[in-house]
Amino acid sequence: MMDDTADARRHAPATARNRAAIGAVLTARRAGWPVLPSTGRRLLLEVASGTGEHAAHLAPSLSDLDWLPTEPDPAGLASIEAWRRFVGTPPNLLGAQPLDLAAPAPAALPAAVSALFTANLTHIAPWEITRALFTLAGRLLPAGGELLIYGPFVQPGRPTAASNHAFDQQLRRQNPDWGLRSVDRLDRAATAAGLAPVDLVDMPANNMILVYRPAARG
Ligand SMILES: C[S@@+](CC[C@H](N)C(=O)[O-])C[C@H]1O[C@@H](n2cnc3c(N)ncnc32)[C@H](O)[C@@H]1O
């Protein structure tokens, strides 16, 4: 669900409801993320930034890290840029980069990032995209870096909320390759990419943030 404004800014109403809770998790965890030797700062890469509202509203309150939004959709990239200007071009909110996880060779990205964050991607894209997300995180995250995945998930042994069940059915009718993913399946894909699940944070409205870190080697 998305509305357009008079300029290129797009508006996804859910971002206004979930951004404070997401911001609180990022704020609480960021001190543990590695500082990059290249800049002496932390860098968060956002995958599938969509409208750019999470970046525009959260980056200014996380001024001790750099936030790099990415998105494959050109209209999304324009929206992210318009939101960046709308909030006064905060110095730590970098210009959005095109990134399509389905592309064989993802676009030019930093060699390393302190954290990767994505919201509402894994259920609205084919499973291969989630696998590609873990592969990218395995490549870019140094020890102590984190991949944070926000969204609705199915957790074995825990009843799925009726609203999430209905959402899952609706997504699968829209596209058989979409649908809510199970935490178990994500954890297995993470392990295959050299990451380990380290936390699962319950979020409002039956959402979660799943947190992964590079597995200890040796
Ligand atoms: C439901 S929107 C979520 C946007 C935003 N993160 C939010 O929470 O409002 C899903 C996003 O996934 C992006 N997406 C879909 N396929 C993708 C891919 N192959 N690589 C990267 N992003 C993709 C879409 O362009 C869209 O921005």
Count of individual domains: 1
Here the CATH topology equals: Rossmann fold
The CATH superfamily title: Vaccinia Virus protein VP39
Mean pLDDT: 95
Classification by helices and strands: alpha/beta
**What ligand species are in this complex?**
S-adenosylmethionine
Shape: globular
Approximately how much beta-strand content do the residues carry?
A: 15-25%
Weakly predicted, low-confidence segments: none
Helix content: 25-40%
Order of helices and strands: EEHEHEHEEHEHHEE
Question: How is this structure best described in words?
Answer:
The protein is α/β, with parallel strands linked by helices and 218 residues long. The protein has one domain: Rossmann fold (3-Layer(aba) Sandwich). The chain has 6 helices and 9 strands; from the N terminus they run ββαβαβαββαβααββ. The chain has a 7-stranded mixed β-sheet, sandwiched between helices. Strands 1-2 form a two-stranded antiparallel sheet. A hairpin with a 5-residue loop joins β1 and β2 (10-11). The chain is globular. The mean pLDDT is 95. The structure holds S-adenosylmethionine. The site of S-adenosylmethionine (SAM) has 21 residues, from loops.
Helix/strand layout:
Layout: E1 3-4, E2 10-11, H1 13-29, E3 42-47, H2 53-58, E4 65-71, H3 74-86, E5 97-98, E6 115-119, H4 127-140, E7 146-151, H5 162-174, H6 183-192, E8 195-203, E9 207-214
Could you give a quick summary of the protein structure above?
This protein has 218 residues and is of the alpha/beta class. It is built from six helices and nine strands; from the N terminus they run ββαβαβαββαβααββ. It has a single domain, classed as Vaccinia Virus protein VP39 (Rossmann fold, 3-Layer(aba) Sandwich).
